[in-house]
Amino acid sequence: MFCEPDTVTNSKISPDGASSSRKALSSLEKKFQNKDNCFQTRLLSIRPADELCFQLDENVKEIYSTISLSNTLTNPIAYKVKTTSPEKFRVRPSGGVVRPGSPVTVNVHIQPGFENKIQSDKFLVRAMEVTDESKDVAELWKTVQRESIMEHRLRCIINSEPVCSKPANDIATLTEKVEVLQSAVSRIERRQQHVILLQLVFLLVVILAIVSDYWQSLSAPQDHKSKYCQAQ
Questions:
Q1: Same domain flag for 101 and 187
Q2: Could you report the per-residue pLDDT of 161-201, keeping only the tens digit for each?
Q3: From the record, what ranges are coiled-coil (predicted)?
Q4: How far is 75 from 65, CA to CA, in rounded Å?
C-alpha cells in the first residue's frame, strides 16, 4: 500500500489491478534502464533506477537521499511520490510539475527513530503528461485515465559504507546540470538557425535590388539615345 508522504490516505497501488497494456508498457520501459543508475520511461528520466540508497553516518543528524526527475517530453509532466510507510519519511516536494529542461530533485528524509527500519519499504513515482496547463493538476489526477499514468517503484536500502549516497547525489546533480545545458544549447542552436535563415533572406533581397538597379542603369542610356535620334 502506497500513501502520500506525511499524509494518511486509502489510495492503493496494486500491480494486480493494472491492465495488460500497462504491464506490457512497464516491461518495455524496463529495457531503458542504463548503466548510470538512471531509469528512462516514456515521460520521465528517474534517478536512481531501482534502489533509493540511504547512507548511515554518525556525524549526520538527518539521513536523507534524493530522487532526480527529468522531463523527456516537450509538455510538462505532473508527478507524485508515494511510500508504503509515510510515518517513516518526509518527502519534499512530494508532488508537482516537471517542465522540459528543468529537472526536479525530490529530497527523502528518514524520520528520527526509523533509521534501521526501512529495509522493507518502497517508493512509488507516478507521472502523467499535462497537455492543458489551464487546468488544476489536482483535478487532473482525479480524472486522468489509469493507462495514461506512468508508475515506477524504488526499494529502500541502507548502506553504512561511505560509497552510497553522497557520490550518487553528486553524479545526479552533475547530470541534471548537463541536461539543463544540453537543453539550453538546443534552444540556442534553433535560434541560430532562425537568424541564419533571416540573414539569407535579407541577402537575397539585397542581391535582387542590386540586379534590378544594374538592369535599370543599362536600359537608361538606350532610351536617351533613341530620343536623341528622333530629335535629329
A1: no
A2: 654 544 555 666 777 778 788 878 878 888 888 899 999 99
A3: none
A4: 28
Please, what is the end-to-end C-alpha distance for the chain in angstroms?
109
In whole angstroms, what is the distance from residue 132 CA to residue 149 CA?
A: 16
Report the number of distinct structural domains present in the chain.
Answer: 2
**Could you give the CA distance from residue 16 to residue 46 in angstroms, rounded to a whole number?**
23
Other CB atoms within a 10 A radius of the CB of residue 66 amount to 17
Contact criterion met (CB below 8 Å) for 67 and 52:
yes
Within 30-103, residue ranges assigned H as helices are none
Residue 144: CATH number of its domain: 2.60.40.10
Query: Is 99 within 8 Å of 71 (Cβ atoms)?
Result: yes
146 and 178 co-located in one domain:
no
Whether the model pTM is above 0.70: no
Please check whether residue 223 lies inside any domain of the structure: no
For 160, counting Cβ atoms within 10 Å of its Cβ (0-12 exposed, 13-18 middle, 19+ buried), the class is exposed
| Per-residue pLDDT at 172 | 65
State CA 39 to chain mean position distance: 12
- 199: Cα within 13 Å, side-chain hemisphere: 6
More confident call, 28 vs 79: 79
User: How confident is the model over 86-100, as a mean pLDDT?
Assistant: 96
